[in-house]
Structure formats: structure tokens, C-alpha cells
Amino acid sequence: MSTKILKITSEKIKKTDPSDMFRCVADFPLQVDEALEIGARSPLVLTSDGISSIMLTGMGGSAIAGDLLRSYLAEELRIPFLVNRSYSLPGLVDRNSLVIVSSYSGNTEETMAAYNDALRRKAQILCITTGGEAERLALKHGHALIKVPPGLQPRAALGYSFFPLLLALSRMGFIKPRPADINETTALLKKKSLIFADLKNPENLALKMAKRLYGKLPVIYSASDRFDAVNVRWRGQISENSKHLAFGHVLPEMNHNEIVGWKVDRDLMKRMAVVFLRDVGTHPRVRVREEITKDIIREKTSTVLEAWSEGTSLLARIFSLVSTGDWVSYYLAILNNEDPTPVRVIEYLKGELAKA
Fold first, then answer.
1. What is the DSSP letter of 278?
2. Spatial contact of 246 and 239, defined as CB atoms under 8 Å apart
3. Structural domain range at position 78
4. Do 244 and 263 fall into the same domain?
5. Lower Cβ count inside 10 Å, N or C end of the chain?
């Protein structure tokens, strides 16, 4: 469908978005400010002494913060940082491990099972939650606890899930403090939010991209070293907010397998829209691969887009693309005439699991 006939108005937003996800996305920079205050004042008795691994266990919107931390800190941390999305923890977790229990609701079934597994293994535990069973266990066992405000969809609470943990790892001595990077990131997020929230701003890339993705099957590609988690965030937000399937892969790995698949099903490939998440810090050889891969794919599909990170620090560049993806998914939801807030099929699945 031509983007010329696709129009989003404030009236359409009010009608399609009764729970005001627009305000959640627009206020994300303010959430980050509050999250930094929470991270600075939350009591911590843990240190990095004797810790040989870090394991964040969580699901969905709570786990993606761990993925982003892992990617962001990969070049600084001297111990493994892994993210667990399962009922049990990997075998390496023991009393010398720091297990971060991340559950926005505090009642996520898989995460609570992993919490109990961490208890059995006598791991060091840090819990970040709004309450629920996670808070109860943390208070019962005297674990470090970071409480964040309730009332949001977990995917809309990324600021609360990420930034208090970033400060906690610094306060515990795992990483160096980075006030300059944080200040740049918050300033950039505020600037981008003003642009992306303005339906009439010609620089509103998120709105333009949403129109290009409308009626297409989005495929998200990125480099694997720093932006694999941002890639996952884009796909998750498009699925949950837009109620719209999205797939993706990372370079250079997809050059060794998936690239060959762009051949047979030409009718399907024409309905795909490929988005490359780009960053100036990507390995030079991967940047060359990105350009060649774009040329190959352009012969197969009509829509190939790019979203470049902004900012100087890696933290700012990561969250500039996170912000872009969140807004793209929001506007795509409105174009799809889908309320971006509810995730009814997830609630149905949880209800059926409870019966079992």
C-alpha cells in the first residue's frame, strides 16, 4: 500500500490507544531519570568480591534489560554475564555467582522457579521487581532488593529494568561509573522523544519507517557484537505493540546461512521489509558485509531500510535505536488499528497454564 494514503492523526491515536501507550513511550526519558534515582538510592550489601559469574534470569520485557546490559558491558566485564530464560539455571551457577532476578510483576512463573533454583544453589541474589512473590522471597531471605514503580506493561518499563541495574553493577565494583555516558543518553532520549512524538515533524523517522513497514513482514538485521539485543527489542516491540510478526538475524552469522534463503519464495520475499540497524562502531568487515548484503537483498524485495544509531557513547547509541524501534512499533500499531497496550493472547496462555 502506498505510504501517501497512510495517515495518523491525534484523533486516530486517541481512538486506537485508549490506555495511552503513547504517553508511556513519550515519557520514557522521564522514566530513565526516575530509574537512575532509584538505582542510586536502593540499598546494596553485595560487592563484586568473589563473584565469578553474573546470571540475569527473567522473561520478556524484564529479560531484555539483561540482554542490553550484556551487550553494552561485554568489553568491560571480566567475568561471564549470561541471560537465562528458563525455569532452571545453567550448571555454572553456584555460591560464587550473582543471580539477578528480574521480574517486573514479581510473579513470572519461569523466573520464580529460577529464583528458587538460585536459592538451592546458595547463589548471591539481587532482585529487581515491583513486588509480588519476588519481593516476598527477597525480604524473607534478606536479598538485595531494588523496587521499581508498578502499573506499566513490562516492555514499557525498560528504563526501570535497565538503569538501576547498571548503577548497581557500578556500585558493586563490577564496572566503572559512567556519568558522562548516562548524561549524554538521557539528553539524547529527550531530544528524540520530542521529534518522534510530533506527527508533523519532517524528521520523524519512526513514523516514516512505520508507514514503510505497514502491510509488510519486517525482517531486522544488525551486527551481533553490540546490537544483537537491540535487534531482539525491535522484534519484540513490533510483535507486542503492533500485533505484527517480525523476524531477524545478526551479521556476520546470517552471511553463513540465512542469506542463501533469499531465493525461492519470491512472492513472499516481495512482501518483506528489511531493516538494517546500523552503528558507526560496527567492526569494519561487518560494515562491508552489511553493504554487500543490502545489495543482494534489494534484488529480492522492494523495501530495504536503515536506522542509524546516534550519539557518541555506546550507551547513547544503543538507546537511540531502542527509542526508534519503540516508536516505530507504536505507530505501526496505530496503522494496524491495534491497541498497542493489551497482550490478550499472553494472558490467555498464562490462564491456560494456571489450569494445568
1. E
2. yes
3. 23-177
4. yes
5. C
